[in-house]
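README: folding subset

This subset contains proteins for which both the sequence and a predicted structure token string are available. Records are stored as plain text. Below is the entry for DDE domain transposase (73 residues), shown exactly as it appears on disk.
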Amino acid sequence: MMPLSGRCPVRQFLVSKPNPVGLKKILLGAPDGLVLDFLIYTGADTVPVEDKQLYGLGGAVVKHLVGTIPKQK
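--- output ---
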């Protein structure tokens, strides 16, 4: 959760977090801690509906983030 006190249409409210109001972000990180990609949760249209039906929300987000990694030759 990235704290945000301003107005934003994708702002989330999670009571259990230390900063309950903000933007929900999902990170793809390397084992050494390097951030490879990230995604801001924007609601139902964050990932394609077809992927969400096949894999669920978590699996669809992982599929989307892993798809952005360049393939090695």
